[in-house]
Amino acid sequence: MNELLQTFITTWLPHNVQAAMLRLDRLHPEIQGNKWFKLKYNLEAAQQAGKRAILTFGGAYSNHIAATAAACRMAHWPCLAVIRGERPPVLSHTLAKAEADGMELLFISREAYRDKQQTDWAALFPDHYIVPEGGHNDLGARGCEDILDLAHTTYTHLFCAVGTGTTLAGLVNAGRGEIIGISALKGALSLQHDVQALLKPGHAANWRILHDYHEGGYGKINANVIGFMNDFFRQTGIPLDGVYTGKMMLAVKKLAETGYFPAGSQLLCIHTGGLQGNLSLAPGVLCF
Ligand SMILES: *Cc1c(COP(=O)(O)O)cnc(C)c1O
Ranges for the Tryptophan synthase beta chain-like PALP domain (predicted)? Predict the structure, then answer.
């Protein structure tokens, strides 16, 4: 299984640098990527707490919503998701699939969503176990520590894409070497603190978040990103998503081109999945 999950992509990089990609996109057809790792200990905790259902939060294209709906269907958990914005006449493919998986959708206005911390959801839904938006909590980070159990090579640099920072925190807690998160958000400098809050004392890794590779902001998928994703696929056979992993690998390429990696560096890039999000792109823009 490990061999299937890890692909060498060295020929794609210039200079004297080796790179491999850990293909979490191939873990499971529906719950791919990092989202399963963020959910697994949360679902266990829900069971231990004697809860009867799951409650979570997300937007119309959220990979977390997609993964939670599929995971709950398979584990026979009823689940409710609070969704940002009014219910549209036609649901996004993500929400349509989530509903088909049995997830109940509760639409609230964007303003109410932004202020959702002010609502006491636990009091409103006492039978529900609450998984925060994006799976961002200690148990989410703990699950992401297990990602590195699947890696079977040494590395000097570890890369992952950053949304809430939960995955990065898990990797820092379990990893070594230089761990670099590429932020998918524009100017989200508070991520530094969010990740720090999930770190174990005494972790050995040297980590940083790079903020200059969002290509216009969260969810903005410009022609540059699309062109890169197509090139990357032609050269490696690996599909990337436009929101996270496409921008992460574009950042790796730019860093390599500017000589960031000393000769002999061994990169391990985590493919955190998210391919369902590509369904929201116009048909035909991607070659895969
Ligand atoms: C959610 C997601 C991320 C971000 O993970 P965080 O733990 O929130 O930082 C990265 N890549 C993909 C494909 C995702 O779906």
Answer: 21-273
3-state secondary structure 48-66: HCCCCEEEEEECCCCHHHH
The Cβ of residue 97 has, within 10 Å, a number of other Cβ atoms equal to: 18
Alpha-carbon Rg for the chain, nearest whole angstrom, is 19
pLDDT tens, position by position, 202-220: 888 899 999 999 999 999 9
Q: Is 164 in the pocket of ligand 1 (CB under 6 A)?
A: yes
Count other C-beta atoms under 10 Å from residue 112's C-beta.
14
pTM: 0.96
Could you tell me if residue 138 is left (phi over 0), alpha (psi between -120 and 50 degrees) or otherwise beta?
Answer: alpha
* SS3 at position 92: coil
Counting ligand 1 atoms within 8 A of each CB, the residue from 37, 162, 191, 249 with the most, and so the one to mutate, is 162
Question: How open is the CA angle 273-66-283, to the nearest 5 degrees?
Answer: 70
CB-ligand 1 contact for 32 (6 Å cutoff): no
Distance 195 CA to ligand 1 centre (A): 13
- Report the separation in Å between the CA atom of 34 and the middle of ligand 1, taken as the mean of its atom positions: 6
Total Cβ atoms within 10 A of residue 241: 28
Q: Which CATH architecture has domain 35-134?
A: 3-Layer(aba) Sandwich (3.40)
Q: In sequence order, what are the beta bridge partners of 82? A: 57, 106
CB 266 within 8 A of CB 153: yes
CB of 170 sitting under 6 A from ligand 1: no
Q: Select from 3.40.50.1100, 1.10.287.1490, 2.30.110.10, 3.40.50.300 the CATH code of 5-29+137-280.
A: 3.40.50.1100
**Which pLDDT score is estimated for 1?**
42
Q: Which residue has the tokens 């299984």?
A: 1
Which of 53, 58, 43 minimizes the C-alpha distance to 94?
58
Q: What is the pLDDT of residues 142-156, one digit of tens each?
A: 999 999 999 988 999
